[in-house]
Amino acid sequence: MASMIRRAETWNMDLDRYINRIVPPSPLHRLPSPISRFLGYRKEQRQDIGNVLGAFWSFMGAFCGLAVIAAVFNNTGSIQMHRPPVLIASFGASAVLEYNAIRSPLGQPRNALLGHTFSTIIGVSITKLFLYHSEFEKVRWIAGAISCGVASAVMLLTGTVHPPGGASAVLAATSPEITEMGWYFVGLVMWGTTLMLIVGLVINNIQRQFPMYWWTPLPLRETRRDDVEVGPTGDGGLEEKDPDLQEDGPQITVSAAGVMLPENLALNSEEAKLLEQLRVRLGRKQSAPSERSVSSGSTVNMTMVPSHTASNLEGDIVR
Fold it and tell me: How far apart, in Å, are the Cα atoms of 125 and each of 53, 121, 258?
């Protein structure tokens, strides 16, 4: 049991390792400058402005963002049919991240939109399950606590942590008017978060930069490049190899040009003779392409390492 707990301390679930391979690199640098600027792109990163101007733009952003959301919600007939609150409380917490701590990863578009979305889906789902209880009002607080806990865990595992999302999950269970809205609350929060991000793109990019990134701070093109290793092919060339197919640890490479051994590896006479025979055989096949039994597209799955060559084999023999 103790060993399992120790192993669990090292467990990590990194979805980005797989998702980032298919996410296209940002196209913002190709857009006209006035457009790319208000989408957060900068050719050179600059230090943020001082806190005096920062406080001013934080005030302007929070005021404009929440005002836009309230104006849209309270003047849209289809929304008013569901009798929503004047302003969803969790948007106030989001406003602090979206317009104040704009360099924090917690307030970037991915975290804001997906964090709120996942949390509201979880909050509504758990609340609907609790509604089957005959005395729901007495256990409503339990639904809110469970909703927040599950939402927090899901946001962490998906890399979408956005603290106001936890408030959205709690509201789905504890606010009667929001509980009555049901699944409509999910769409409402997504729409409000989108409006808040749009206002942020305008207000925050006048003298500041927002967002710092849309999906990940890692350069996606380089990330995918790092996922690929280069190794030798059977005909003496090089090709890209998936690192998931590579084996860890030192390896021996035999080619017509010589034999590469890991450092500090000693061979006996029989091992040295076997490797020399393989080298000679490869040399003969290279000189007679028509007799090769391996197609030109096949590869040899091994890694070239700086080490000994065939000429040094005899010195490695253990007598």
Answer: 42, 6, 65
CB 117 within 8 A of CB 183: no
Token digits of residue 234: 């059977």
Beta bridge partners of 11: none
3-state secondary structure of 253: strand
What tokens were used for 26? 């940002």
How far apart are the C-alpha atoms of 122 and 154, rounded to whole Å?
9
Total residues belonging to the chain: 319
224-274 per-position pLDDT tens digit: 555 544 444 444 444 555 544 444 556 788 887 787 777 667 778 888 888
Report whether 64 contacts 200 (CB < 8 A).
Answer: no
Q: How far apart are CA 69 and CA 67, in angstroms?
A: 5
- Residue 262, token pair as written in the block: 């890991």
**β-pairing verdict for 258-260 and 229-232:** unpaired
Nearest 5 degrees, angle CA 157-CA 244-CA 252? Answer: 145
Whether pTM > 0.85 for this model: the answer is: no
pLDDT at 226: 52
Task: State whether residue 249 is helix, strand or coil.
Answer: coil
